[in-house]
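Re: your question from the hallway

Yes, I did run it. Sequences:
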Amino acid sequence: MNNHLRALRAEHGWSQADLAERLDVSRQTVNAIETGKYDPSLPLAFRIARVFGSSIESIFDPGDQA
Amino acid sequence: MRKAEGTSKRRMLRRIGATALALGTVAWIAGEVFTWSSLQRLGVLGLVLGGVWLLFSLYTRDEPLRAPQRRYMREFFPAIVAYVVILFSVWPLLQHVHANGLRVLIALLPVLPVAFVVRAMVRLVLASDELERRIQLEAISIASLSVGLVSLALGFMAAAGVVLLKNALVLVLPAMFAVYGVAVWWIRRRYDGGEP
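Structure:
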């Protein structure tokens, strides 16, 4: 699954550690999601969307999996 | 934004490794001077563990520990120190104690701090985020299945009289902890990277 997390985070001027703290996850988890090594669960995807004030669809793109 | 407080993973591992090396050296020298073999073995254990922790610190990112990890450290280390102290100070008393009830009590005493270690591990997993839980699950699966498989193989060899397993059961859980520790470190590397 592709996502625009890194770009969104940069827009807000947040480091991975800043975003991790807002999401109550580890920095490693934020990095794994950003680099596509890990797809978040639906509850975490909703939390990410809420933090950025966006919808899940605008952040995550299923790519070929759709 | 509130910054994560406390020490970093790398600094913590270095501090623990250096402490274990220092205590191990003191115990080993004291064991040599007083010709006390238990103390010497404790010293060797400290030197080995200290070396392993210092080695791991080289491959660990320098980032703050999260609250569940800090709590785990606070719970894990007193318990493991209590285990080592009991194993090398109270347990040897068994050879001088002959009352059955007291022997059972002394024999089971090292299990108590290990139960606290297990409790600390369970609390860490329960407080972890979803990716950390996945890493823990994979590591625990690797540790339990590999140690279980080796135990089964050794059990069959012992049953066939090919090898003699004396008190080997006490090594099962420590072996699982050791494999689990290496497996967590190895699996984490898959998800590592990103900003310093």
